[in-house]
Amino acid sequence: MIKEESQEEVKVEREGVEEDTHTETDDDTPMELSREEDKEGKKRRDYSRKKKSDSRTCSGSESAPESPSASDAERQHRLWRKSVMLVYSRLCAHKYASLFLRPITDEEAPGYSVVVKRPMDLTTIRRNIDAGNIRTTAEFQRDVLLMLSNALLYNSSSHSVYSMAREMHEEAQLALGMLLAAQAHAGL
Hints:
Layout: H1 2-16, E1 22-23, E2 31-37, E3 43-49, H2 68-92, H3 112-115, H4 122-131, H5 137-154, H6 160-186
Antiparallel strand pairs: 1-2, 2-3
């Protein structure tokens, strides 16, 4: 008897509590969870996708779809980024890339900040691409060549880093030339 009463109390408590009917999914689309009773009186769950609301509109009205030029620009940017990242990966795979992976400090190279006014490294280039600070091939080329020119500027021609930077500079010029030719051929 006690067992039956406690089940009834639980049932009453469940009915009085308002349940959250939204369920999160992996694709960030909220799902509406509704509970309906079937023929036998058992509750069923119904999972159906809700349309995402457009945060750009204040009212609940439908907004116009994005213009074709916006989607074309996004597609062009994705293609550009993919081609630039191929060159970036090639530079990172170079045998001397480890010298250029992170910013140079004055502890590693005394007086570096006095000689080099605009330091650049591969990690900073990648961060700038990801953040959208580098959006053109010319900007990418500028930063890659700046990074290598800084090494040539700071180190004397008899230093091993100078010869390594020179070799990597030649490789970068070749890769960038191929990138520019491919983009010209593709009409980008």
